[in-house]
Specification:
heterodimer, A: 316 residues, mainly alpha, MetI-like fold, B: 322 residues, alpha/beta, Rossmann fold, four-stranded antiparallel beta sheet, 11 helices, 11 strands, globular, transmembrane (chain A), MetI-like_sf (chain A), cell membrane (chain A), BPD_transp_1_N (chain A)
């Protein structure tokens, strides 16, 4: 198991290095110089060159990449934005927790509800529970998140003001209001993945329930709840992989949800950075998302190795 | 064992079918047999003869759609059709257990052998984890698995086919059943391992006084460990007798042809014997004797149903045997 973990960890580190290189090259290869963005399009060439020299932008690409990696790996420092002059670490420290909380709440909501729905659907196949949950999943998959968000704001924040229409109320103003302000955005973010994952859980569990070893479990007289646990551990293998990817994708969807609900999370920094052509900030934010995605995948690999012992011995 | 002791398992007029558009399509048409402690009965027949469905109905695990249309099954003191689902669960494993053809797919790949055994034990007996683990170790030892304590931590995929089938047998025996149903237990195994598993079943029958119902299409295996044989064709038992008598004086033409299909070392080289034709499809039985279209001895009388289906040893459902 330790060998398996180190093997996967090694792969993840390799992936981080490659992604960081691609990310750096792509954002640095954009022909427009940051100097022109700061100084204006009609600034004299001398000034531009002086700006580039001051900020080290005239050095070779690989040298700058090495410096970026060095500072990031050894000091955890993303550096300062040439465009805004702000430290990127401060910016991330301010916005990441907001997005992280929203995504985690939405993720937990999606995972818990989808496993419950998918399991009920599979166990009571073709019952009214199954039909209801399948109708729900079709709606959940096909209705766009931003539209759900707008409709929910209209009904549950404006017409019937139960929840605030936007923003996240800080915890300092009370835990209750804070949680209330999270409900609508987390629901909108989670509902799509609830639908996707509950469909997967259902089909995977139905397949497993037809396996010979479930018949054996019944034939040995295990109680229903234990038979279900025997089935679920096997059925979750394909679901876990998709679940971990969903966690990563949710950060992408969070940008839309944060915009609709006017939440000051990572989306604000990223969208601002893109519109200001502040590529150093874009690079930092995307790199953080990448790390989260890889960590989620690593967690999924470990969880799968626990669920499916055959995976552990496959590795040489 | 005395012949007067009441049988542990008694099946009478068991009928099984699949629901169809125009009413139920029967697949098993009234099967009767009984089985006592320490006795081994073989249900023999081709695929589709209804032998596996008959076996599965005994532990109320008929596959999707199939259901019991009638008849009675008595297990010990219990009449199966009068029991609640919870009582049936207690009978499964506690009174009757079953092992299946492919031991790899019959064991849960995600749990250790020890976990599966202790869960089975604790589903029937209120034991602590430690006590159940001790019992699991004894079971693995009983079925002849070397270093049983270490094996408790193994997963099924880490074992050989023969060892897996031994584990499956240990799992079946976990809660001390009195009847073991073995559905083609050696079909998926190597020939050398087949003999070991059959020897194990014979030993367990003796040591534990188990009744064994062996489902097989392999008459050679049957001859090794069984006392009695019931031959099934198209959802009916067509002949039943002791193993010796079946081999010496088969009554039903179908039994005779099945025996002829076993290749012998002293046979002259040449094509192997087969039974021409195929078993009839369910719901499309020929009129009269179901074996008539394939029977070399068929004559006019066979257009009517055979006189009687065997209730006792030595009888056969055939006009010629009457």
């Amino acid at each position: 198991m330790l060998g398996f973990f180190l093997h996967r960890l090694g792969f993840s580190i390799l992936a981080v290095l490659m992604i960081s290189l691609i990310l750096f090259v792509l954002t640095a290869a954009i022909p427009e110089s940051p100097a022109r963005i700061v100084l204006g399009a009609d600034a004299p060439e001398v000034q531009v060159q002086q700006f580039e020299h001051e900020h080290g932008l005239d050095r070779p690409l690989l040298v700058r990449y090495g410096e970026w990696v060095d500072r990031l790996a050894l000091h955890g420092d993303f550096g300062t934005s040439v465009v805004t002059g702000l430290g990127m670490n401060e910016q991330i420290a301010e916005t990441l927790p907001v997005t992280l909380e929203l995504v985690i709440v939405a993720f937990v909501f999606a995972v818990v509800l989808s496993i419950a729905l998918g399991t009920a659907s599979a166990v009571f196949e073709n019952s009214w529970i199954d039909h209801a949950s399948r109708i729900f999943t079709v709606i959940g998959v096909s209705v766009p998140g931003f539209w759900t968000a707008l409709i929910l704001i209209l009904f549950f924040a404006i017409r019937i003001p139960i929840f605030p229409p936007g923003g996240i109320t800080p915890v300092s103003e009370g835990l209750g209001p804070h949680i209330m302000s999270l409900v609508l955005p987390a629901f909108c973010l989670g509902i799509f993945y609830t639908a996707v994952l509950s469909r997967m859980t259902r089909s995977s569990l139905i397949e497993v329930l037809g396996q010979d070893y479930i018949r054996t479990a019944r034939a040995t007289g295990l109680p229903r709840s234990l038979v279900l646990r025997y089935a679920l551990k096997n059925a979750m293998v394909p679901v876990v992989t998709v679940t971990s990817m969903s966690f990563g994708y949710m950060f992408g969807w969070a940008l839309i949800i944060e915009t609709v609900f006017n939440i000051a999370g990572m989306s604000g920094s990223l969208l601002n950075a893109i519109s200001q052509r502040d590529y150093a900030t874009v690079r930092a934010v995307v790199f953080v998302f990448t790390l989260i995605f890889l960590l989620a995948n690593l967690a999924a690999d470990l969880l799968n190795a626990w669920l499916n012992p055959r995976l552990r011995t496959v590795q040489a | 064992m005395s012949a007067a002791a009441p049988a542990f398992l008694e099946v009478s007029d068991l009928r099984i079918g699949f629901p169809g558009r125009a009413g139920d399509v029967p697949v098993v048409h009234g099967v009767d047999f009984a089985l006592s402690a320490g006795e081994t009965l073989a249900l023999v027949g081709e695929s589709g003869s209804g032998k596996s469905l008959t076996a599965l109905s005994l532990i109320d695990l008929l596959p999707g759609g199939a259901r019991r249309l009638g008849g009675r099954i008595r297990i010990g003191e219990n009449q199966l059709d009068t029991l609640s689902s919870n009582a049936i669960r207690k009978i499964r494993g506690g009174e009757i257990a079953m092992i299946f053809q492919d031991p790899l797919s019959a064991l849960n790949p995600a749990f250790t052998v020890g976990r599966q055994l202790t869960d089975a034990i604790r589903s029937h007996h209120p034991l602590s984890r430690g006590a159940a683990a001790k019992r699991a170790e004894e079971l693995l030892d009983l079925v002849g698995i070397p270093s049983p304590k270490a094996r408790l931590h193994s997963f099924p995929h880490e074992m050989s086919g023969g060892q897996r089938q031994r584990v499956a047998i240990a799992l079946a025996l976990a809660s001390g059943p009195k009847l073991l149903i073995a559905d083609e237990p050696t079909t998926a195994l190597d020939v050398t391992v087949q003999a070991q598993i059959m020897a194990l079943l014979a030993r367990l029958r003796q040591e534990l006084g188990l009744a064994i119902l062996l489902i097989s299409h392999n008459l050679d295996l049957v001859a090794e460990i069984c006392h009695r044989v019931a031959v099934m064709y198209a959802g009916r038992i067509v002949e039943t007798n002791t193993v010796e008598e079946i081999f010496r004086r088969p009554q039903h033409p179908y039994t005779r042809m099945l025996l002829d299909c076993i290749p012998r070392l002293d046979d002259r080289p040449g094509p192997l014997a087969t039974i021409p034709g195929e078993p009839p499809l369910f719901g499309k039985l020929p009129s009269g004797c179901p074996f008539r279209p394939r029977c070399p001895a068929a004559h006019e009388r066979c257009l009517a149903m055979p006189p009687a289906f065997p209730q006792e040893a030595g009888q056969a459902a055939c006009w010629l045997a009457a």
